Amino acid sequence: MFESIQPWIGMATIVLVIALLVYCVILHIRLGSLKKKYDFFMQGDNGASLERKLSVEVSEIRDAAKGLETMLTEQAAIRNIQSNTIQKIGFIKYNAFENIGNDLSFALTLLDGNNNGICISSIYGRNESRIFSKPIVKGKSLVSLSQEELESLNEALGERTNEEALTSAIVSK
């Protein structure tokens, strides 16, 4: 009974050894391919390792992040300063007195980003000229404004006056 099984065991062993030998050759080829790739990544142009390259890149990214943080901080500071600078201007020239030719009187409104500022008006007459200044807080005057000063304030705030609305309506027709 064992005599018929023994030749098969020998054949099976030989086939198994050949299969394992082929598998070892395939693994050796794959290992050689991986070793070539590993050597390629670990040797740079000047022989630097991948670790060194990565550490340099990481430090550059950290430096860039610090620079970005600094830039954002400075941008916030600039925005705070900018909100306190003159950004909006309204200017109206007019004739204060009928007997004087040309529009020699004016109202000038200067506002910052928070709509705080000043309205300066000059009234020109033949014998004298007067200049007035009135504070503007959050887009509103603390004292009463003349019609021209109010128009100048509205222009600085970007609001259209009734006269401008009528003029643009006539032009569009």
TrEMBL record:
Q: What is this protein called?
A: DUF4446 domain-containing protein
Classification via InterPro entries: DUF4446
Organism of derivation: Veillonella dispar ATCC 17748
Q: Which UniProt keywords apply?
A: Membrane, Transmembrane, Transmembrane helix
Lineage: superkingdom: Bacteria
Q: Which residues cross the membrane?
A: 6-29
